[in-house]
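Exercise: predict the fold of this chain.
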Amino acid sequence: MRPECNPERLEKYAQLKGCLIRTTSFLIVLFMPPRIKTILCFGNSLTAGYGLASSQAYPALIQNRITAQRLPYQVINGGVNGDTSARGVSRIDLYLNQPIDVLLLELGINDLARGILPTQTAGNLQAIIDKVRDRNPKCRLVLAGMEISNLMIPKDLPFSPTR
């Protein structure tokens, strides 16, 4: 008998995976396909793919790579054009009715354009992370953003580095 067909090893594996059913005369092992994990790309127009076909937005491109490698993940595009971190705090609730395994959070550049203080943006981003982690404690986090030159920050903002 090959080792991988050994009934004792199979029973131990099934017990570990929680897919063992015992009856009086035989053993039934259920092999379930792995749960499809969710990657939520949550952000603004950069995530939404403003000006691009939806198939060209980066969440769709990530999904294409995942699908090509036959990985058990689905990517959700949670991008909204013009979104701010404050609106993101309330909008994240729409996605919390499902498991989120990876949160790719990309918000904040529109806050700068509206003169919102960086400390307020940081607090809003933390609130989004906290909401997701409250429901999905094992969720992995990817925090993405833009780096801009000080020359691009309007001089009339109260926190402008060129003031």
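Check your answer against the key: The beta strands are 20-22, 27-29, 37-43, 73-79, 102-106, 140-143.
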